[in-house]
Amino acid sequence: MSHPTRATDSLLTTDRRRFLEGLFAAGLFAGIPRVGQAGLGDTVSIKLHDKNASNILNRALTDESYWSGASVYKYQDELYDEIRLKPMGDGYLTMITGEGNQDFTAEQVGKTVFAHQDKLPRHMDGAKALPRLGGGMDGVVGAPYCDRYFLADFALFYGEFFQRSYDFRLSDGRVVIAYEKITQNFLDGNKWAEYRKRRKEVLETVERRWIASSIVEITHSYGMFVVSPGAKRKSRVTLVAQLRFGQGSGLIAQMGSKMPPVLKAGMQAGFNASVAVARHVKSGKYK
Fold first, then answer.
1. Relative to the CA of 10, which of 38, 120, 145, 175 has its CA 20 to 30 Å away?
2. Can you count the helices (H) and strands (E) in the chain?
3. How much is the pTM?
4. What's 119's DSSP letter?
5. Does residue 154 sit in helix, strand or coil?
6. Contact (Cβ atoms closer than 8 angstroms) between residue 256 and residue 83
């Protein structure tokens, strides 16, 4: 195994928390409400525009053998009980699952993930802005969608992308919130221009540490939350996801999204922020 560069080591030691929160804010990590993977089952298949991402997520959540070769980490007395990291190309497919230490209904969890991600900046430093851009019914996927612009602080740079989330309600009562990166072919020219204009407005108004800090586009981002009944609590959440910075993103960005300690710590840190949002959803503060 190669050793991290001096710059990467400095990132992990001096700005690790902000980098991890940035990973979470960018949509890779989240979870609420312990043991076993909350799979979809053989008869369920969730669609995305990105067919490759859809195939990966459905296999990961229906076929246990798909995780062969993955590193598996078990936990007790935490909000989560298992983390998996599966090598995939030049990155990792990640999974985190757990029930948490509170009772949240599937509806409350789904609402947290689908409708209230814009509240994350109130609960974590790494999330800078997650405004809602639009929504409706996606004719290709066949589910309600919500579009957002994500801007996250990764310590040495800012990461961004446009994201579309889908709200699937299964016949057995489970909730699935899937998401993927929006590319230009999702939208007509006018809507794409509108989204780009909103991005520009956000960048002009959001407070950044250095206005000249580079803004790096996240190359790949997709995932799927499955909310199912828990063994001890009302619900279990399983998230399978991948986030990756590709060529042209810079060495720090690419290395950070490929290092298991960074990925694990990011998943762990993400639980606290999303639980904070879910508590407010449960209490009625976030409608």
1. 120
2. 7, 11
3. 0.84
4. G
5. coil
6. no
Q: Where would I find the H helices in 180-259?
A: 189-205, 251-256
What interhelical angle do 260-283 and 106-115 show, nearest 10? 110
d(CA 17, CA 126): 8
Gap between the Cα atoms of 117 and 225, Å rounded: 14
pLDDT of residue 278: 87
What integer pLDDT is reported at residue 17 of this predicted model? 59
> How far is it, in rounded angstroms, from Cα 131 to Cα 148?
6
pLDDT tens readout for residues 145-161: 999 999 988 777 888 99
Question: Which residue(s) pair with 162 in the sheet?
Answer: 149
> Which amino acid appears at position 116 of this protein?
H
String of b and e for 77-96 (b: at least 16 CB within 10 Å)? Answer: eebbbbbbbbeeeebbbbbb
Return the bridge partners of 172, or none.
none
> Residues 140, 49: contact at Cβ < 8 Å?
yes
53-84 pLDDT, tens digit each: 999 999 998 888 999 999 999 999 888 889 89
C-alpha dihedral over 226, 265, 49, 136, to 10 degrees? 70
Provide the pLDDT for residue 134: 96
The owner of tokens 């990155």 is: 91
Parallel, antiparallel, or unpaired: how do β-strands 235-244 and 91-98 relate? Answer: antiparallel
Q: List the chain residues with pLDDT less than 50.
A: 1-8, 10-14, 28-35
